[in-house]
Amino acid sequence: MKQYEVTGMSCAACSARVEKAVSKVPGVTSCSVSLLTNSMGVEGTATDQEIVNAVVAAGYGAAPKGAKKEQTAAEEEEALKDHETPKLRKRLIASVIFLVVLMYFSMGHMMWGWPVPAAMKDNHVAMGMLQMLLTIIIMVINQKFFVSGFTSLLHGAPNMDTLVALGAGASFGYSTYALFAMTGAQVRGDMDAVMGYMHEFYFESAAMILTLITVGKMLESHAKGKTTDALKSLMRLAPKTATVVRDGKEVIVSITEVRQGDTFVVRPGENIPVDGIVLEGSSAVNEAALTGESIPVDKQKGSSVSAATTNQSGFLRCEATRVGEDTTLSQIIKMVSDAAATKAPIAKIADKVSGVFVPAVITIAVITIMVWLLAGKDIGFALARGISVLVISCPCALGLATPVAIMVGNGMGAKNGILFKNAVALENAGKTQIVALDKTGTITTGEPRVTDILPAEGYTKRDLMQLAADLESSSEHPLAKAVMEHAKATGISQTAVHDFQALPGNGLSAVRWEDLLLGGSVSYMKENVTVDSTLLDQAQKLAEEGKTPLLFAKNHTCAGLIAVADTLKEDSPQAVAELRDMGIRVIMLTGDNERTAKAIGAQAGVDEVIAGVLPEGKEAEIRKLKEQGKVAMVGDGINDAPALTRADTGIAIGAGTDVAIDAASVVLVKSRLRDVPAAIRLSRATLRNIHENLFWAFFYNVIGIPLAAGVWYPIFGWKLNPMFGAAAMSLSSFCVVTNALRLNLFSVHGKANKKAVPAAKPTEMKISESEETKMTKTMHIEGMMCGHCEATVKKALEALPEVTSAEVSHEAGTAVVTSSTEVADDVLKKTVEEKDYKVTAID
Asked: Count of alpha carbons within 13 Å of 192, Cβ hemisphere only?
């Protein structure tokens, strides 16, 4: 999306006019104009010049963002600063000074007899001339209303400024006519006519209208400035300098001079300047600025670090991997900015109304004046009613109702590590009825861990872990890594072994001192070691829970059992419970076998589990679910990308792959599943706020315009002074913006707000069947021991361009490979054996 700055817009009618003009340019596929940020997002093949020319032809100004040079974060922040409020404040102060003097003479003297210079006491013409002069000064101070209003009128696109200019201009014009008529009456000596014309002066109304509208504009501008606080605070996080190593020396350079591959150093207390990989050192890094997580994260060699996070304790030497606009911080800023430049579907209602609102109001004002004149009222009464209609009508409230809520809601999301890529995503998330969750890396940690330690008689848990650690220390298997990490965490250091062997049938052997150590799957160990039936029963129970039981023995005597599994993330059950409490049906999609999927699904508490789903099958399942309601898909892997794109709302776990993040419309920076219900909750709150704003905007105009036109005057004697109409117009926009700012007080992790959705189905298991394909081969593989092994082999095989799917089973020791074209056996064999598994045959 190409973004442009647009100048000269004052209300929703302006933004609608610009959007309509640009949409007509050949090559433009979509255009979204934001009145809030005075920006425009355009997609298509049209050139910058063609788009700028279209905006200029419509009576406004435009320029591509960053057209002059690449802006730094500081310059972008400066561009977002509230430059309008100080200007309006100066205009308001000057207007008020002259208005006070005008009101003293026009109201104070005439109504309460306040003293005036003797020369003016009985000189009504001089009094009128003074009022006219003071009003002209106030009109010159607020000339922007007239310049913008009449320019827009000449272009055939009247806006809010047009209403103000017509209202104030009509008041001034009629008052000037009355002044000249009164001068003629005084020359003739007709004092009754003179006094009559004195009561026809509306100079103070014209001045008061301009001043009150300026008050409203200033309040509105100040409140609008607050809506971009979240974006500005993100930009302030961007470091200005970095300490890089050049020619063996540390040099402090501007952040714009850091290049990918540079080595930079960060000392305790300093901010990390760009994204990178730790080359040397260890430290605790505070990532609260990006993720909102207050607990520091430990970093060591090989760990990734992000720009704008704070190094708290140790010295780090890092290699820059992402610089400039590619850093995580810059991407977050871009997402928030793009979301502000886009338009939510709900805004179309206000856009349609805004496009015809001002012409309709002008028509109503003219009709009002004519009706009252035909009803026998004098020109002063009829004109006052018409002017009231002009100045009470407020298209701004309609135009701001949606964008201010979107901006504040999106900013709140960014503060809490929830990034909505556009306004459509923010709106759609709140309508979610079904959430489909990927298993590995989303519900679970994605890494196997030790879950159970069951020593045999004569062994302690520490003895068993020591034996297992010594045996697994020479293995590269993922399960061995889980055992070693647990041993390290419990303070167990390994003892050297020799004669290590990986045995056919999922077993390991090694010699420690004079003792033979054995370990492996239950089926392998049963053939080589006598295992107690109780331990076998426990192994079976653990397997039913989706865990992988490993048996260990010393000198052919069973030492016990250690279970390893891809465990649930700590917050997964709570996140699922929150979603269900919100009335949302939760489904888990996984390629795992039925037993493992059923066990994980039960632990997480989901409503339904769909197991054995191939990568392309996930997208098909989402397609089916969309027939039942609005679907949000949550995933983190490359194989989740099609499903994320297909879903109504794609939600990517932040720690996932770039492909998944690109495919999703919502990104969870903290990689916490609890942020899924938080995102939906925030979206619902934003939608509720938009509905409130639109209701207020429509209600205000529906009530205000008839009152101003004098509809109730014949019945109740109600009529509206134009000055009060101007005050009401000023407050309407301010109320809409202020209501949107209330979202800043919303707690995204607060109580769930329920919403009626289709009833959840009872938990059921489903194994997807592979689709009809051209070629199928069955590979017989040794060395696979768990679901993690399956995933490794599956991922490797599906990375081959010819392979469309691979169904892998560690229990059967097979991989059924489906391909669109012939794949050589040696290619398949090499692919698997590069992952340290042995291929014994290919059918």
From this structure: 0
Backbone angles phi, psi at 352, to 5 degrees: -65, -40
CB 365 within 8 A of CB 188: no
Cα→Cα distances 460→60, 455, 798, Å:
80, 6, 43
Locate all alpha helices (DSSP H) within 311-378, ordered by sequence. 328-341, 347-374
Which pTM value belongs to this model? 0.67
CA distance 147 to 145: 6
User: What is the residue type of 291?
Assistant: T
Q: What is the pLDDT of residue 763?
A: 44
Distance CA(154)–CA(55), nearest Å, equals 15
Closest CA to 230 of 82, 412, 420, 83: 412
Nearest to 327 by CA among 422, 249, 230, 242: 242
Beta-strand relationship, 249-254 and 241-246: antiparallel
- Residues facing 444 on adjacent strands: 568
Helix 675-709 and helix 722-741: axis angle, to 10°? Answer: 180
Residues 494, 475 contacting (CB under 8 angstroms) = no
Q: Which residues are catalytic?
A: 438
Q: Which helix (H) or strand (E) holds 2?
A: strand 2-7
Residue type at 482 in one-letter notation: A
State the Cα–Cα distance between residues 726 and 392, nearest whole angstrom. Answer: 6
Per-residue DSSP letter, 270: P
pLDDT of residue 769: 39
Q: What is the pLDDT of residues 269-310, one digit of tens each?
A: 888 988 899 999 888 888 776 665 656 788 888 888 888 888
**How does the average pLDDT of the chain come out, rounded?**
80
Query: Do 42 and 74 form a contact (C-beta atoms < 8 A)?
Result: no
For the chain, the distance separating the N- and C-terminal CA atoms, rounded to the nearest angstrom, is 50
Burial class (CB in 10 A: 0-12, 13-18, 19+), 260: middle
CB 518 within 8 A of CB 556: yes
Q: Which residue in 661, 637, 568, 632 sits closest to 798, CA to CA?
A: 637
- Tokens for 11? 């209300």
Helix 722-741 and helix 203-227: axis angle, to 10°? 0
Q: pLDDT at position 520, please?
A: 86
Edge to edge, the sheet with strand 498-503 lists 444-455, 557-568, 548-554, 515-521, 507-512, 498-503
Interacting residues of 113 by C-beta distance below 8 A, sequence separation 6+: none
Q: How many CB atoms lie within 10 A of CB 296?
A: 17
pLDDT of residue 695: 84
Q: CA nearest 319: which of 260, 366, 371?
A: 260
| 143 Cβ contact partners less than 8 Å away, ≥ 6 residues apart | none
Is the Cα torsion angle 704, 706, 707, 710 positive or negative in sign?
Answer: positive
- How many CB atoms lie under 10 A from the CB of residue 58? 22
Measured CA to CA in angstroms, residue 115 lies from 201, 202, 385 at distances of 20, 21, 32
Question: What parts of the chain have a pLDDT lower than 50?
Answer: 67-70, 752-773
- Give me the torsion for CA of 378, 379, 382, 384, rounded to 10°: -120
Q: What is the DSSP letter of 169?
A: H
Beta strands in 348-476 (DSSP E): 418-420, 434-438, 444-455
CA–CA dist 178, 187 (Å, integer): 14
Nearest to 485 by CA among 473, 498, 496, 474: 473
- Measured in residues, the chain has a length of 843
Angle, vertex CA 771, rays to CA 769 and CA 774, nearest 5: 135
User: Given this model, what pLDDT does residue 347 score?
Assistant: 66
Residue in 569, 583, 799, 564 with CA at minimum distance from that of residue 673: 569
**Amino acid 552: pLDDT:** 92
Question: In a 3-state reduction of DSSP, which class is residue 531?
Answer: coil
